[in-house]
Design a protein that fits this description.
- Its main location: membrane.
- The protein is mostly helical and about 230 residues long.
- It has seven helices and no strands.
- It has a domain of about 150 residues.
- The longest helix is centred in the first third of the chain and has 47 residues.
Length: about 230
């Protein structure tokens, strides 16, 4: 019976932008909501809350983009350096590199003859690609993309931070802490569910993890804000 219709769906190709997006949205929502809750606990006026929220949104998005770009660029530079070393070794010591690739396939369960045949075929097809994948673990899917990570992080941070900023604009300062707490926890739960769905992972652990950490962050910052408000 033909199985040509069967096609498994994998999500590893989403890792580069999904990680940055989840981190950005999570950070944007928690950090901005925590900041506003800390301020609200000190009982400032609504104008101060709004300006603080907008400043947190803009500065946070820019900071996340810059941080992602720099860190992922460093990763890309390291990958490029490893590929140059591997290319040099392939030119200078082709026999040694072929034996190395053969041994890798032997360790993965192939017999010596078959492993050598596979190594020779892949070397003839694209030696650098084969060694990059098997020795270093670099593939087209896993390659670092700084610009993609930076844009995903900045946009997701802004989206996450927008919710508490809008709430600070639409809600009175009396109810702001309660409203921020409830909506942030709900938002984190939705974010955890979406990220798990996009990554093909179980939803419950992702939701529980992100909600618990969010509650701790909100509780800590509101406590600090209340203490500061009393002291000042």
């Amino acid at each position: 019976m033909s199985q040509s219709w069967h096609k498994e769906q994998h999500f590893s190709n989403r890792n580069n932008w999904l990680r940055a997006s989840v981190l950005g949205a999570n950070d944007g929502l928690i950090s901005t909501a925590s900041l506003l809750m800390g301020l609200a606990a000190a009982e400032p006026n609504q104008h101060t809350l709004l300006i603080s929220g907008i400043a947190a949104l803009v500065s946070g998005a820019v900071s996340m983009a810059a941080g992602e770009y720099v860190s992922v660029s460093s990763q890309r530079d390291t990958e490029a350096a490893d590929l140059r070393k591997e290319q040099d070794s392939l030119i200078r010591y082709p026999e040694v590199e072929l034996e190395e690739l053969t041994n890798i396939y032997c360790q993965r369960g192939l017999n010596k003859t078959l492993a050598q045949q596979v190594a020779v075929a892949l070397t003839e097809h694209n030696a650098l690609e084969a060694h990059a994948r098997e020795e270093i673990g670099i593939t087209e899917v896993s390659k670092a993309n700084p610009l993609q990570a930076a844009l995903a992080s900045a946009l997701s941070f802004a989206c996450g931070a927008l919710l508490p900023v809008l709430l600070s604009l639409l809600s009175s300062t009396v109810w702001l802490m309660s409203i921020l707490s409830i909506t942030t926890i709900i938002g984190l739960g939705i974010l955890g569910c979406i990220s798990a769905h996009l990554g093909g992972a179980p939803k419950r652990p992702a939701v529980i993890r992100i909600v618990i950490l969010g509650i701790l962050a909100l509780a800590f910052t509101s406590m600090i804000g209340r203490i500061i408000g009393i002291i000042i």
